[in-house]
Structure prediction request, 377 residues.
Amino acid sequence: MWQKLMWVGIWLAFMGAPIGDLLDASHTTAATVLGWLGLATFVTVYLALVLRHTARPPARATVYGLLGFLAALAVVLSLTLGSPWLVLFVYVSVSCGATLPMALATWSILVTTATMTVIGTRASHVGDVVPGLVIPAILGGFAMTGVRHLIRTSVELREARATVAQLAANEERLRMARDLHDLLGHSLSLITLKSELAGRMLPGHPDQAAQQVADIEQVSRQALVDVRAAVSGYRRATLPAELAGARTALSAAGIEADVPTKAPEGLPAAEEEVLAWVLREAATNVVRHSGARHCTVTIGERQTLDGRFLELRVQDDGKPGPGPASPVPGNGLTGLAERLEKVSGVLETDSGRRGFTLVARIPLIPDPSTTPLVSGS
Prediction:
C-alpha cells in the first residue's frame, strides 16, 4: 500500500505551482479559500481514483464520473485562478491513463492536453507555462497506460503460473494413480492366486503350501518396496524384470506361458520403462480376466511402411471380449495408452474368437552408431 502511495504520489510534485500561487496572496481571501478547498478536493479524488483502480477497480460509471469531476474542477480553477493551475490537467491525463481502457485512454489524454493548451492561450505568460506542461501531460498519461499494461501482464503471469502448478499437480496425481494401479494390480493378483493355490495344497501337501506362502511373503515385500519407491518417485520398471514377473504370474495361474527370456538391448530408458508397464498390465489382465490356457509374449523390431517400430505383442486364447471390435478400455488400458503417447507410441487391442491380443508399438529412430535391437527367446 505504501509503495503504491509513494509511486502515485510522486506526481504531486507538480502541485508546487498552484500551492505557490495561493501562498503569494495574489488573490482575494475568498478566492484563496476556494482555491485551497478546490485543490484539496482535487488531490483527494485523484488519489482515491488512481489508488483504488490499481487495487480493486470501481464501477465504470463511477470512474467516468470521477474523471469528469476532475476535468471540470481543473477547467474551473484554471479559468478563475490563472495559468499556474493548468498543471491540474497533467493529473487528469495521468488519471485517464491509469483508469480508462487503452483505446479510450489514448483519446482522453490527447483531448485533455488539447483542452489545457486552449485554456492556456487565454492566460498570461503562455509561452512559459503551456510548453512545459504539454510534454508532462502526454508522457504522464501514456506512462500510466504502460504501467497498467505491465500490471495486467504481471497478474496474467501469476494466474498462468498458478494454472501450470495446478496442471502439474494433476499430472502428478494421474501418474501416481497409474503407477499404483499397475503395481498393486499385478502384485495383488499374484498374491491372490498363490493364496488360493496354497489353500488347495494345504491338506495333502503342506510342504508345497509352505512354499507358496513363502512366495506370497516375497511378493508382498517386493510390492511394498515398489509402492514406497513409486511414492518417492525413484522406481523404474525394466523389461527383464517384467518378463520374469510375467512368466511367474502366468505359470502360477496355470497358464502355459511362452515368454522371451531376454529383452532387447540398446533400448532407451524411457521406451523400456513404458514397454515394461505395458507387459505388466497385459500379463495381469490375462491372469485376472481372460480364463486363458495359453499366452504368448513376443517383443522385437518390426519394419513397416511408417518406419521401424519396436513391437510388444501379448496374445492369449481366453474368452472373447464383448464384441468383434476392441473392448472398451478400462483404467489400466487407458493408463497404458497415456504412457505410450509420451514416447510417440500406440496401443492396439483386438478381441476375437481366438482370444485377446494387445499390441504396443514404439517408433525407433535410426542411429548408425548402434546395432539393431535383438531379442532372444
User: Anything to note?
Assistant: The longest strand covers residues 294-304.
